[in-house]
Amino acid sequence: MSFWDILLIIVSSLLILIIILQESDEDATSAFTGEKSDLFANKKERGIEVWIKRVTAGLSIVFFVLCVVCAFFAHKG
User: Fold this and answer.
1) Whole-angstrom Cα Rg for the chain
2) Where would I find the H helices in the chain?
3) Nearest alpha-carbon partner for 15 in 46, 52, 49, 70
4) What is the pLDDT of residue 11?
5) Against a cut of 0.85, is the pTM above it?
6) Which of 23, 41, 73, 76 counts the most CB atoms within 10 A of its CB?
7) How is the chain split into domains, by residue range?
8) CA–CA separation, 61 vs 25, rounded Å?
9) Which of 72, 66, 74, 65 is nearest to 8 (CA)?
């Protein structure tokens, strides 16, 4: 296992963890009733929600780049 593979595993684990921490935009009951609530549709994100979205975007970009790098090294070897 190379350095890039270990780094990819770490970033993948962090990405999974940060996605699990995100708050859902939809209510669980609307999934069963088919009803959509517009009560909080225009709610502005604040505090930790903004931070989590930025970290998720950053980790997603790093994950994509690492996948390309690992594929390049796997193809060479």
Assistant:
1) 18
2) 3-21, 28-33, 48-76
3) 52
4) 96
5) no
6) 73
7) 1-18+48-77
8) 23
9) 66
3-class secondary structure, 7: helix
Residue at token pair 């994509």: 64
Please give the Cα distance from 47 to 25 (Å, whole number). Answer: 16
Helix, strand counts (H, E) of the chain: 3, 0
* Rounded CA separation 9/68 (Å): 14
Q: pLDDT truncated to tens, each residue of the chain (77 aa)?
A: 889 889 999 999 999 999 998 877 665 565 566 565 565 556 666 788 889 999 999 999 999 999 999 998 887 65
